[in-house]
Amino acid sequence: MTKNPIMAAAVSILALGLGLGVAPAMAAKMDATIGMQLEPPNLDPTGGAAAAIDEVVYANVFEGLTRFGSDGSILPALAESWEISDDGLTYAFKLREGVKYHDGSDFNAEDVKFSLDRARADDSTNAQKALFADIASVDVVDPVTVKVTLSKPNGSFLFNMAWGDAVIVAPETAADNAAKPVGTGPFSFGEWVKGDRVDLVRNPDYWGEAVGLDKVTFKFISDPTAAFAAMMAGDLDAFPVFPAPENLVQFEADPRFSVIIGSTEGETILAMNNKKAPLDNIKVRQAITHAIDRQAIIDGAMFGYGTPIGTHFAPHNPAYVDLTGQSAYDPEQAKALLAEAGVSDLTLTLKLPPPSYARRGGEIIAAQLREVGIATEITNVEWAQWLDDVFKAKNFDLTIVSHTEPMDIGIYSREDYYFQYGDADFKAIMADLASATDPAKRTELMQAAQKKIADDYVNGYLFQLARTGVADAKLKGLWPNSPTQANDMTGVSWEE
Predict the structure, then answer these.
(1) What gap in Å lies between CA 78 and CA 348, rounded to an integer?
(2) Distance CA 404, CA 401 (A)
(3) Distances (CA, A) of 455 to 311, 340, 415
């Protein structure tokens, strides 16, 4: 029997139509690849100072009693609520029930006690140990209640507990968190390919609201040109802190992308070693600040993105005081101050970490210092080398770095901090601030602290780092601002 060709064609078309009818719809994208310029030295936020650690794990893998919201507000996290005693010395935290770590073990009050006692111990390696200095004791009331007693009132205590350095870890896994982090967050650790990426995967047993992604990959690309190429090629879905601001105009003109400009907590400073001659002379430090043209640095290194600052405080904070005029660009005054200090033929080391604001800004500052008679020996160092040589060993004269921790002016009270200031009067201001609870009094003290370090010309205050982000236009929920050093992926998803 011969087949009717018309009938055969009709059957084929019908079969094709039926096949198309039962084919599943294209699945929504459930992963995201996020670009970062710096690779973290480890993945334990309780044991390292590098901002890149928190940029991977904060709110994603690890959680604290409290956390920062996208607007900088303090929100409940592992503590669902708390009560504060009338004298401000006792905090009773009610913990969330049914929370598990990524290895399946239970989270409870004993873990909170372990974490806080560990952070404040004499042998603690926590980079922000001062956050815990006012804790007198941590007591387990029951499995879901912890009582923290302070030695004196601290109006910043809930704020301090939101830092990445204050996340809660389990005693069984704490020692291994640097390489294999185990937290309670909505993402668990997947894989770390050194020099390339860190993969996080959805935690199916997360206690809170489910996240919108199954997988997040943090891809490390240090070179700004390579970062631009990766975004344009679609190899990255977002670069929240894009390292090549000169390319932003090209992204703005391309409908595939959204450009996200926001603020950060990153005070970008020319840090000076205050205990190393001749930088131990305030006139020399003052001369250096007057040799610096902030706007030229913002324009040349950041292509116009950044806000000039005259002290170590974020301009978006209501307590900010504009002190830029106190260290205004004045090369002739810089020369006069050097002469008064009896300093001539001065050569200083300038050690620059990898970020473009430091490398580009350093070249500009070197040229500006040269104009007033100060020579610089520039050394480009990798991040790990900067941490060892500058931050820890204090083997430097000058360096450039953005301090991205939230409201961190308190670092100036630490004598052993890398720029080695630790002034007694400044310490007294910070001690008063710690015990103050009245908002007006706290504002007064914060402004006094800003003025004090500006008067002492501790460092050269350059600009507040802008958050210059680029993302696929369909990727929603990225933070526009940086109230802390984080790439919080908990609210990120693809537009349907």
Answers:
(1) 48
(2) 9
(3) 9, 18, 18
- Read off the tokens for 350: 């300038």
**Separation between Cα atoms, residue 293 and residue 139, nearest integer Å:** 52
Token pair listed for 232: 């344009």
d(CA 6, CA 8): 5
Q: What is the pLDDT along the chain (496 residues), one digit of tens a residue?
A: 444 443 344 434 334 444 444 445 567 899 999 999 999 999 999 998 889 999 999 999 999 999 999 888 899 999 999 999 999 999 999 999 999 999 999 999 999 999 999 999 999 999 999 899 999 999 999 999 999 999 998 888 999 999 999 999 999 999 999 999 999 999 999 999 999 999 999 999 999 999 999 999 999 999 999 999 999 999 999 999 998 899 999 999 999 999 999 999 999 999 999 999 999 999 999 999 999 999 999 999 999 999 999 999 999 888 999 999 999 999 999 999 999 999 999 999 999 999 889 999 999 999 999 999 999 999 999 999 999 999 999 999 999 999 988 889 999 999 899 999 989 999 999 999 988 878 899 999 999 999 999 999 999 999 999 999 999 999 999 999 999 999 999 999 999 8
Q: Which amino acid is at 351?
A: K
Chain-centroid distance, C-alpha 262: 14
Q: Is 452 helix (H, G, I), strand (E, B) or coil?
A: helix
Q: Is this structure's pTM higher than 0.85? A: no
**How far is Cα 452 from Cα 467, in angstroms, rounded to an integer?**
28
Strand 215-220 and strand 31-36: the pairing is parallel
First to last CA, the chain: 52
Identify the H or E element spanning 467. strand 460-472
* CB neighbour list of residue 159: distance below 8 Å, 6 or more residues apart: 66, 74, 406, 407
